[in-house]
Amino acid sequence: MIIYNEQSRTITLHTRRTTYQMKADKHGTLLHTYYGPRVGEEDLSRLLQYVDRGFSPNPSGFAALPVRGYSLDTLPQEYSTCGVGDFRALSAEVEQADGSVLLDLRYVSHEIQPGKYALENLPAFFGQGWETLSVTLRDPFSGVEAELLYGVDEEDDLLTRSIRLTNRGSGPVTLCRVMSLCLDFTRADLDFATFDGGHVKERTLHRAPLRPGIQSVGSVRGTSSHQHNPFVILCEEDAGEDHGLCYGAALLYSGNFLAEAERSQFEHTRLVMGIHPSHFRWPLAPGESFTAPEAALVCSPDGLTPMTHRFHRAMRERLIRDPYQGKRRPVLINNWEATEFTFDADRLVDIAREAAELGAELFVMDDGWFGTRDSDLSGLGDWTVNEKKLPGGLGALVPRIKALGMDFGLWIEPEMVSEDSDLYRAHPDWALGAPGRPQSLGRGQLVLDFSRKEVRDHIYAAMSRILDSTDISYIKWDMNRSLSDVWSAALPAERQGETYHRYMLGVYDLLERLRRDYPRLLVEGCSGGGGRFDAGMLHYTPQIWCSDNTDAIDRLRIQCGTTFCYPVSTVGAHVSAVPNGQTGRSTPIETRGVVAMCGTFGYEMDLGACTREEKEIVRRQIQTFKDRAGLIQAGDYYRLTDPFRDLTYTAWQHVSPDRREALVSLVTGSTRAALPFTILKLKGLDPTLRYRVDGGERLYDGAALMHAGISFPLISGEYQSIQLHLTAEPK
Hints:
- By secondary structure, this protein is of the alpha+beta class.
- Helix content is 19%, strand content 30%.
- It is globular and about 85 Å long.
């Protein structure tokens, strides 16, 4: 619900549990007055104080006492200015035609409409029940106009934001910085939480109190990156899973990004988030516009868990476009860890046969099936089947897989090219790289210039020939290096600052075409695992390979960090062989299965090498996942312990929307003598119901399970696991 009060000039945005308010004051400044638990429509600008502060300048007309207390440096703003007196983190920076970087945005008008605004060629939330607020600000001196866009999803307690900048002046301007989100708080007693790491150690939670100055995370790798994630949290210092005020902000963008949180000299906080300004310059001729990516906001007055639930539900229902919507996705087997590049058709069929007999439903052929691809040094870009490995091509292989009762899927890396490839020999200028300079290699490959339509068209035609040649129901879209040597042969020198963003728009364009032409195709995103795990990619790929690290114990932290924002149904998680290839650790197959069930579930191993006992465990695991997939994928997810602090044991829980069913999972860490007793307090149950555990005779009171807990037996040995299935009966 969006309400405008003409007398106070306040605009109030309500969701079920939260309120967001702004005010256009008499000087044309769009002030931010409130975001928090739901309140009424009272003008909350009454909380602001106008005090003369040294070295905080006044706009023209405010230099004389007693009005000298009006300063943009001290007031909370909805979208901050640049170069005209506000020295905090910038929302936008625009180089004007005269060379200045001054931007003074003032309120002009606003409009409230039913439905959700649309963004050009960018991922965005969608669906019914939205309202849109559009606020127009303008710099009266240059004519640069900002349209602030707000989407209000009242039911899911979700707000979205974007901005469209238009040059309404008579001369050219250049955008040097465009943040999608600016959020000011008149307090600084907040923690800043980010999700950081690296390849095979993604999304580790780091949380610390805001210190004076700017704290930031971001990426200039051309992807959202393994190192930092475009999702951050600001929360009260004592906030936990079930209490305290929390704000989550997610950027729907998969390229370079920046999130900055600044604690100012006057104990205020500003959060800005958007495209990273490094390497970004976007010229606008008169009449031209630029639209920034969307950002999503959730405010939870009751802790981190409700914030998680609201993001999960909104993303599942209003962001992700899933060909399996409302149905269980298939359990898959991937051949990579079993064969790497060395395979033939018979070997693949053998792997598929073993998996089919145990209940798997989708066989995925990974890297090595195309061109002259016997290692990672050749073949990328040549998307034709290697018939030395696969005689008769996919037309011969796929029917053999389908005859086993399995669907067929394929790995592909469309954005890359090998120097040793027919494509590169024919079109070396299609790879990113400045003329006269050597190009950096990553994993032996170069990056195709996806900012160019002719490049995308060529790759899409090659992909279409493959997809049209046989029955393929799944592809894994990989991207195995960061962008470097970023220079496009299609752009003049003065426009090279557009390349990173145009590259990302090109990726989105190709993915959208794929979805349009092959609507039943399931696409799993991947970038060396979790290097592009973000809300932007989820608009096109309903699941993303969470990490190249498949070690079950490391995955406890990686998957936990991922699920603070992203739904369990998006988390690519598989059982792999031991000793693990990344860590050398051996964990029981039961534990590997329990961990992989907190995701999309599948296998990355040669099941034919398993013992008879292990195969029976796999058979039971697959059946268990099939039976409980609806609960796991669509239920509410609860973190029962914090794996970033203590690995004595890690526990989590899935609860069905009607709270009549739950699945509790626990994995032990390193063992030691005299282990403590384990009593685990469950969450999300219905206190008016009684629950039966694993079909046993005893009934447990829902309230008692949550407040008193349930006792787990002492478990000897490291990395053991337990799962409890709870079903409810009326009292």
